[in-house]
Records
---
Amino acid sequence: MKEKLTSLNLSKWIVESGQSEVLSEFPQNRFSDPDSEPKVLGLIPSRKIVPEDKIDFPTNINSTETASMASNLAELRELMIKYDGCSLKNTAMNIVFGDGDEKSDVMLIGEAPGADEDREGIPFVGLSGKLLNKMLNSIGLLRSEVYITNIIPWRPPGNRQPTLQETAACLPFIQRHIELINPKVLILVGGTASKTLLVRKDGIMRLRGRWFDYQKNDKTIIPALSIFHPAFLLRSPAQKVNAWKDLLAIRSRLKNL
Ligand code: URA
């Protein structure tokens, strides 16, 4: 039987379609309108890592020494191209080093290249990249104004998850990459980037939306926020409501830099 259009039925339909929380007094276009002025959420306090939450990455002395030799991005790229300690390099077509403004205050770090990125040698150019661009646009950022890279610079075969050994081999390179870009804010895109750089066992559901302290080798701190990976959002569009909250937190932080 056809249901009557009442405000109760309308509310039920909205909740069933995944919109279960009110974030703002006004409706907001979540990803596609860079000019809208969303209400800004308050700053979310940073959290410190406690020892029992930590992952133990095996230290890769070889890549640690190699990465420390780079005094600029061009040198880091060359050292990574010559580095033979990660077998993913043997199956990938290209190294996917980074893209965007090297002087940006905002650095985004994803997991690893997929097929499109491997073909072009540029991070986030496939379907998830297109959504990531829209997410950035929704808070008034252009892709060309931020810097984007990945934890792993070579595509894992079949887009499988990188192993702990592969991640440990690449970790010193991304750590040096962060030092050379020296952003004011890090955005960790998805679970792998978040767990690896925050050295935490928690999954993305627990990590997202909270500011953490990313500690550089010189012990200085960069505030880091984890967000859902756009590939996950493509599979789980109902989570866009939470992604939007996280984007607002980034926007608020950037306004207060
Ligand atoms: N997913 C990632 O994490 N990085 C890319 O570059 C592309 C897809």
---
Amino acid sequence: MKPAVELIDVNMVFKNREVLRNLNLTIPEGQRMAVTGPSGAGKSTILKLIAGLVIPTSGLVIRHTCRTGYVFQEPRLLPWNTALENVTLPLIARGEKRLNARKTGITCLADMGLSGFEHSYPDQLSGGMKQRVSIARALAIEPDLLLLDEPFTGLDPALRESICQHLEQALSKKVATVIHVTHDVDAMIHTANTLYTLTTPDTLVQLPLAG
Ligand code: ADP
């Protein structure tokens, strides 16, 4: 199996705080990885390193994928854009025609249960709706690498279940590598086939995943 992402001897120090020490990890294409561990252990930092949002203090991060979808803990929508514009922006930025981007955006919002809210601005949406817009934005580009950072926090259980199912469906259509930081066992079952836990700076260990 070809690697999707490689982390080679990665060290990450923020000011004087050592967060990751000599992290070596090869994530094969198509792997669906859940990462758990205590708060502050460095899980989000791993995602940011993989996305290229932070640079390691030393070591190498190699991404072999082309399209990264990233769902952050908070929605991070552009407040001056509508829900639809937020979803279509990355598509248009990639060179897609506006009409096609619009069609994709409308479908992705509908998949998230947001039909009728395409032209709403973020401040007209609830926290859960904004988060669903951000999930639609990540899926709209048909990512071959999907980074999920506790994306379902704040969603009520029924909604979370339906979004997880949609995500599972979207992921089953193509080979995508998924790295999902979560404490949510139910959500993990939908997206992961491998489970890792990060505790101290140098211990990212694979755990058996029941079922
Ligand atoms: P987790 O996702 O496991 O909760 P994080 O990766 O968010 O942990 O953070 C790990 C540690 O790194 C925390 O102590 C956090 O305060 C620190 N940290 C993360 N990002 C930065 C930053 N940009 N500057 C300084 N410290 C940071």
---
Amino acid sequence: MTNPYLTNFPQIVLKSTLLKKIFCSLLLLCYVSAAIYAQIPALERVEPMFWWVGMKNPKLQLLVHGKNIAERYVSLNYPGVKLVRINKVENPNYLFIDLEVAANTKPGSFSIKFTRPGAKPFIYTYELKTRDRSFTRINGVTSKDLIYLIMPDRFANGDKSNDVIKGMRETSLNRDSMYYRHGGDLQGLIDHLDYLKDLGVTAIWMTPEIENDMASASYHGYAVTDHYKIDPRYGNNELYKKYVELCHSKGLKVIKDIVHNHTGTEHWFIKDMPMINWVHQWDKFTQTTYKDQTVMDPYGSAVDKKRMLNGWFVSSMPDLNQSNPFVQNYLNQNHIWWIEYAGIDGLRLDTYPYNEPAYMADWAKKLKAEFPRLSIFGETLVNGVVNQAYFTQGSTLNKNLDTNLPGITDVAVKDAIYEALNGKFDWTSGVNRLYSVLANDFIYQDPYRNVIFMDNHDMSRYYSMIGEDYGKYKSGLALLLTTRGIPQVYYGTELLMKNFSNPDGLVREDFKGGWEEDKQNKFRADGRNEKENEAFNYFRKLANYRKNTTALQTGKLMQYVPENGVYVFFRYNTAKTVMVLCNSNDKEITVETDRFSERTKGFSAAKNVLTDEWINRISNFKIPAKSTLVLELQK
Ligand code: CA
């Protein structure tokens, strides 16, 4: 897998052996300066800032951060809330307070007092809110959906006033550089929700929108510096909540991209760590091997597995220690907090195979307990069906653990569609690859929960990967939007945006028209050229057909052995039967349909759903060179 995060930050090494001897040395040896240490206010933060009554799990662990806060005595008094334990850790600037909130506790606020003889007490007013079930939130993202992935910095700038935020480490905006912030934000996305709805998209996945206050190249969002705060360059927490509500009001679902594995080095809790083993420690900087095989290989060594799981993703992203129960609670509660706060429908889990497996399995169980309809899929950019299936819920391949991970990013199907489009037809290649990969679906508990895609923010764009061949473009999109799974497209696919991911900034270009000063506005038909409009209209037609056709969403799949470079499959339910014919040849092919009678029986005509052409027979179909027909069979 390519490393999406490589940047030019100086390498930072945590010297664990020394740190373990004297905790205070940490502050000197690490990148935490004495000046920053001194700047921590007496009561800097309490996280989660507020919580809810009626959660399935009555336990709540508050992280309290403030200068020498551990010297303080903690007290509270609220009916239903039990103070179970005060945890002091290595760093006196932290307290972890274990609470239990009884099921019948009334929503309301109470004071948490931090006292010390002879000193002024600090008081934090803690609020327990009512869980919001008032509108149809948390629908889950399923195979009924079409996911559209955007990078918020690169989609649309709806608020120029937040382009550069005073006090943040990255001090300028530069749209001419792929490494700088470009000014896109939540308001920009909100302004274009109708564009996405019209396009036929039903779910939006944004790369992480929480604060990434890094010194440079922070726009990608995977170097988190504050888990509870929307990056001010995108908006604020209230605007994010409003964005989710607006999406729901338009029938769109929202996916949040979350990172368990690492944070940015500028994260406030990395700069003043609660304890040495908050992150994985190495004697010298040690990077992960990016080799997922090490976690499942029967011949693998312990040292390789450890390096895969505990090695840092890159030097600017410390590897969180998910075996540490305080880290576990922190992450779990943060994710629950965002879902309950904003009503998110699905989570995409970044760098899934790099996380501690037992922790991730437990995490998924806890999240599903609070939000049964929540959808979850893990980024598993691994090689092959077996390797990715290993990570899925209920897999018999993983004998040690049920991961409880409902869905994964289906690289095997992606590669197989590319092979169907670009490869030469043979026993195992060309469209035979796609047929074979799908024939392996018996390996999954539910393959319909896999997210299928052709590209994303870390990969070369689809249009470039098929040699900018418009015929293949249409053919591949037809396969993606008609086969099983949850299709995901990357912003700009509908406009034939292209480029190879080297460096990755090239596949993260701005959506033209998202900025007031843009000369072209590709959100509008009159801003697109003829070819772009053709692609847009094709995409829109197909996406909207899928949106209104349950057979393509949840219907059964039946596929036939490819012959003469032609791959045929059906999606069907009691309402409709859709026949898909993919011709991978350079010439037109006529396909006789006798051998498909198991599925064509009872039908006498067909409608081409992309051209609306009516075909008055089903005995044979002519498929143009390098194209895919999508036909709705008619009685
Ligand atoms: Ca902006």
